[in-house]
Write a structure and sequence with these properties.
The protein is α+β, with helices and mostly antiparallel strands. It has helices at about 30-40, 65-75, 90-100; strands spanning about 20, 25-30, 50, 60, 80, 90. Strands 1-2 form a two-stranded antiparallel sheet. Strands 3-4 form a two-stranded antiparallel sheet. A two-stranded antiparallel sheet has the order 5-6. The structure holds zinc ion (3 copies). GO terms for molecular function: DNA-binding transcription factor activity, RNA polymerase II-specific; RNA polymerase II cis-regulatory region sequence-specific DNA binding; zinc ion binding.
Length: about 100
């Protein structure tokens, strides 16, 4: 995961915005960004970015929103990550139990 792609929307001020959202008129310099934004107007949109924290299950349309959610809700929470499969656990006992079996199958 790279950090640099996160701020594209904020950093495009000096670029001409050629693509306008037909729903709200907001301008975008990339067609892809406009299409991504336009999907947020669709009430039946799929939310591809799921929070990986245990017992949360929140889903977001944009990676940016997921990141904000994690920083706002889960920041400061101690998360134990499996060193083998990177699966996060909020409880140390569950994490220990998982690590004992993970990768040994
Ligand atoms: Zn729009
Ligand atoms: Zn969450
Ligand atoms: Zn694991």
């Amino acid at each position: 995961m790279s950090v640099s792609e996160e701020n594209e929307e904020e950093n495009d001020d000096e670029t001409e915005k050629k693509y306008n959202c037909p729903e709200c008129g907001r301008g975008f310099n990339r067609k892809f960004n406009m299409q991504t934004h336009r999907a947020t107007h669709d009430p039946n949109r799929v939310k591809p970015f799921a929070c990986e924290h245990p017992n949360c299950g929140s889903r977001f349309t944009r990676k940016h929103d997921l990141k904000r959610h994690i920083n706002g809700i889960h920041k400061g929470e101690k998360v134990h990550e499996c060193t083998v499969c990177r699966k996060p656990f909020s409880r140390k006992d569950a994490w220990k139990r998982h690590i004992a079996t993970c990768g040994k199958m």
